[in-house]
Specification:
Length: about 240
């Protein structure tokens, strides 16, 4: 990772923007590829009819990639100006702890952010576009109003300003975030029933969990875990199996 940071350190605005576009379109392509692969699983179980993909979805998903690139470039400049500090001496254990910490902090913030956009009148309008998908498709993860994409990005930059995380820890968290988001927007289940039960008992959000949110927007606001939904009693009635 050090040689990559060295490149960014000496790169100008245009160069950083091009790298940002490559990285963010790479994430977009990887998410679509994973969705396509998981849709081909022979033992998958349909959760409902797939949301049809339309031209507005394609356009909005590309705008989301551009918004994510803007956040990336902003993040690189925050780092270059010393506002974001990155730990250069880290071990394997530290990286795992960083990914866990980022996931847990972002899980709580995303629950608050997501629940707020459903209940505050102005933000409800902003989030409405995502909920035009009553079911989901391979673009649903990226079908967001630009305010939402930028809001998520700024929230993440705010968190990584708090501690000197390593670039590896941040990158792995972002991979996990894309993976979770892609699986969350599958309109079918790929886990066998027994695994699904284990995931639900372990408070992990599954495809079913977020699919139910698209069907019934008054519940299941969590992104990585259902902990906050259970705690604040916003979990879908069919998932209220926890002791
Ligand atoms: Zn969604
Ligand atoms: Zn929502």
């Amino acid at each position: 990772m050090k040689p990559i940071l060295e490149i960014f350190h000496h790169a100008g605005f245009m160069e950083i923007t091009v790298y940002g576009l490559i990285i963010n379109f790479g994430i977009y392509g990887a998410s679509l590829g994973l969705y396509f692969l998981l849709s081909r699983f022979p033992w998958k179980q349909e959760l409902g009819e797939q949301q049809p993909v339309n031209r507005k979805d394609v356009l909005l998903s590309l705008i989301t990639v551009l918004c994510n690139t803007v956040v990336f470039v902003f993040g690189v400049y925050l780092w270059k100006s010393g506002i974001i500090r990155l730990d250069k001496d880290f071990g394997f254990g530290q990286v795992i702890l960083e990914v866990l910490l980022l996931t847990l902090i972002m899980d709580f913030l995303m629950y608050v952010f997501h629940r707020s956009v459903h209940f505050l009148r102005y933000f409800r309008k902003v989030h409405e576009r995502h909920h035009e998908h009553e079911s989901t498709n391979l673009l649903s993860l990226f079908v967001l109003h630009p305010i939402e994409s930028i809001g998520f990005g700024l929230m993440m930059l705010g968190v990584i300003m708090l501690f000197p995380f390593s670039a590896v820890g941040i990158s792995l968290y972002l991979v996990l975030n894309s993976l979770w988001g892609t699986v969350g927007h599958l309109n079918h289940s790929v886990l066998p029933q027994s695994w699904l039960k284990i995931a639900q008992k372990g408070y992990l959000c599954t495809s079913e969990f977020h699919y139910l949110h698209h069907q019934n927007p008054d519940c299941n606001f969590g992104f990585y875990t259902s902990v906050w939904d259970v705690m604040f009693k916003t979990i879908h009635p069919s998932l209220r199996t926890h002791p």
